[in-house]
Amino acid sequence: MPDNLELVKSDSSLRRRLLLGSILLSLLVITIFCYVGYSLLLEMEKDLERQAFEEQYADVQTLLAPVIENDDSVSSPSLVPRDLSILAEDILIIELDNQELYRDPRLAPQTYLQPLKQSGFFEESGDEYYVHSNVLPSGKPLTVIWRSVDMQKISERVISRLSVAAFLTFWLSVWSALIMSAFIARRFESANRNLEKMALIDNLTKLYNRNALLTSLDIQEKQGAFMFLDLDRFRDINDALGHDMGDKLLKAFSQRLRLMSDNTMQLYRYRSDEFVIWIPNIPSDEVMNRAFTLLYECREPLNIGKSAFEIGCSIGVACAPEHGHLVETLVQNAENAMLRAKRMRLGIQVYNERLAYNSTVEVTLRSQLRSALQQKQFELYYQPKVNLINGELSGVEAIVRWNHPDEGLLPPGHFIDLIEQSGIVHAFTRYTVEWAVNQIKTWEVQGTPMPVAVNLSAYNLMDNAFVPFVERLLASSGITPSLLEFELTESATMVDVAVSKRMINAFNRLGLKTSIDDFGTGMSSFAYLRELNVHTIKLDRAFIMNIAENTKDARIVEAMISLCHNLDIRVVAEGIEQQNQVTLLRSLNCDTGQGYFFGKPTPAGGIDALLSARESVMVNSLTK
Question: What angle do the packed helices 466-477 and 425-445 form, to 10 degrees?
């Protein structure tokens, strides 16, 4: 599961932490507030008391003015107490010129207060007092001592109000935190659901994605089947028509899968043009029927705008629990089966243990392609093409073999698809074409010119630098251009007919020959034969295998031969293995034959032996 989704899920304690943080923050704020408030209260108490005492001192000074001006009156005890009774009761002692004018009656006679020399607060026997002393204009010092007012009650009232305010602030903070945490939790839950959906749903097709398949699907103790689908010609269409068209094609295909599926089937887009279908509780004897139904439905044209695409697919099948118990294992096994179905053009392949070995070998081969090309481990073998009329050798097809140091001599079915999926397809094609041209030159110098056909990939048709490369190669080698022939598969030419037509015309201008391989198995129509202007059509082996026994195949072949001849196009029949096939094809006026009946692919030395013998390859066969 993605890291961001795990992060959201692991943060389930966010609400609790937010609440705790808010409480701690509110407590901190309240503590600071109370401390500052209490400190200010103490300072305010002293300031207010000092201000009040100083005002009373001025009143005392005014009241005692006659006494101060008349020294005799100082000793008059009757005057002072009566006039001072209107002053604050907190005055304890009044002294003028160090003579006591007034003493609070409540103050014990023996109580002696030693005031400060300067005005201010002082403590005596645990009590707090305030003294204010000043020298009057007459030169006499006037000193007044007060008992410090007890502000405890006032402080308690203020503190109680501060406590109430702090309590209210605390609970307001807690409730605010609860409301905020609930709101944020809901937002996170919504975001979590959206992230889960984004993490499990493919944005383009809206199907479940690979992550959902591998993390959310539970198949424990269930019987069922995985079907791994790969679109056959999607990459060609994507490269030729652009990614936008490719995306539209994928969406259209996924919609078709939805229409084909029932409530039990689960659909997944695994990656790119690969899809996985999980069918639970399907009996083993029904798996292949379902797979073939799926295969035939996928071969129906996909209509996108005004265009119709016949892409088809290859399907690999893995069944639970026969082929595994874990989703990862079953999907991997189904993918291995699909790769074999695609490589061998089987349409459908059920997994077996041999495929696992082949998959391991394939991974190894894929990693060795580039070094193999650099070390020239790829070699050209040549399969004879025979003129069915006179039995003479009329040309050869160059077939690549990989002389692998560990696996031995590998046929193209083991690595061609890997090369086309890699980044060396253009370099590989140049390598094979250059090898073929060198061999053509060798035979031409020997006086035995031999046409050689080289297979091209659909990717080579998209290579704008390929025609200039061939032109330079022809010029440097000096061979007769018509001895070099390029074979294009029918499906490759149909990816983009305009591009194919342009490339074939360019080859024709250089004097090369061109042919369409595997004709009759793809999605082209006979009208394209007129557009493409090729020299040869190679009938697919599927029409030749049963031609002697199946009259329908024979009639189809006869019709295609007749049509091609009317268009001045020669016909080659592939896959000939029996004499009766040769006899029938000759009677149908087929021009050329190719297959194991005439010879397997052989190194150039094998063709040299045929050329040096100067014997008819079919002399014995034609006389039978």
Answer: 20
DSSP 8-state symbol, 616: -
Rounded CA-CA distance 95/109 in Å is 15
β-partners of residue 267 are: 277
Q: What angle do CA 484, 490, 495 make, to 5 degrees?
A: 110
| DSSP assignment of 116-170 | -SSSEEEEETTEEEEEEEEE-TTS-EEEEEEEPP--HHHHHHHHHHHHHHHHHHH
**Among the listed residues 290, 293, 272, the one whose alpha carbon sits nearest the alpha carbon of residue 281:** 290
Q: How far apart are CA 373 and CA 458, in angstroms?
A: 20
Hey, CA dihedral for 433, 438, 442, 444, is it positive or negative?
positive
Per-domain residue ranges of the chain: 1-200, 208-351, 369-615
Residue 190 to residue 27: CA distance in whole angstroms:
32
Query: In Å, how far are 269, 304, 334, 381 from 273, measured between CA atoms?
Result: 8, 17, 15, 34
Backbone angles phi, psi at 522, to 5 degrees: -95, -150
At 509, the amino acid letter reads R
CA distance 349 to 335: 10
Residues with Cβ within 8 Å of 520's Cβ and at least 6 positions away in sequence, in order, are 490, 539, 540, 542, 543, 556, 560
**Alpha-carbon distances, residue 466 vs 426, 462, 469, 504 (angstroms):** 8, 9, 5, 12
Q: How confident is the model at residue 1 (pLDDT cuts 50, 70, 90)?
A: very low
Q: How many residues does the chain have?
A: 624
pLDDT band at 2 (very low <50, low <70, confident <90, very high): very low
pLDDT reported for residue 418: 85
Position of tokens 């189904």? 334
Which among 340, 357, 362, 358 has a CA at the least distance from the CA of 349? 340
Structure tokens at 321: 């629990």
Pairwise CA distance, residues 319 & 301, whole Å: 29
Q: Hey, which bits of 177-255 come out as E strands?
A: 208-209, 224-231
- Give the DSSP letter of residue 238: H
CATH of segment(s) 369-615: 3.20.20.450
Q: What is the pLDDT of residues 293-305, one digit of tens each?
A: 898 888 888 888 8
The two tokens of residue 499 are 């591009």
DSSP, collapsed to helix, strand or coil, labels residue 476 as: helix
Can you give the pLDDT at residue 82? Answer: 54
Rounded to whole angstroms, the Cα distance separating 229 from 526 reads: 30
DSSP letters spanning 546-577: TTTT-HHHHHHHHHHHHHHHHTT-EEEE----
Cα–Cα dist 89/104, whole Å: 8
> Which pair of tokens denotes residue 265?
């089937």
Return the structure tokens found at 69.
Answer: 């001006």
- At residue 486, the 3 state secondary structure works out as strand
CA distances from 4 to 14, 16, 189, 191 (A): 15, 21, 14, 11
Element (H, E) at 254: helix 243-260
Same fold, 208-351 and 369-615: no
Residue 215 C-alpha from the chain's centroid:
15
- Of the spans 192-206, 213-227, 317-331, which averages the highest pLDDT? 317-331
What one-character DSSP code corresponds to residue 482?
G
Q: Which CATH number fits domain 208-351: 3.30.70.270, 3.40.50.300, 2.70.98.10, 1.10.10.10?
A: 3.30.70.270
- Residues 92, 85: contact at Cβ < 8 Å? no
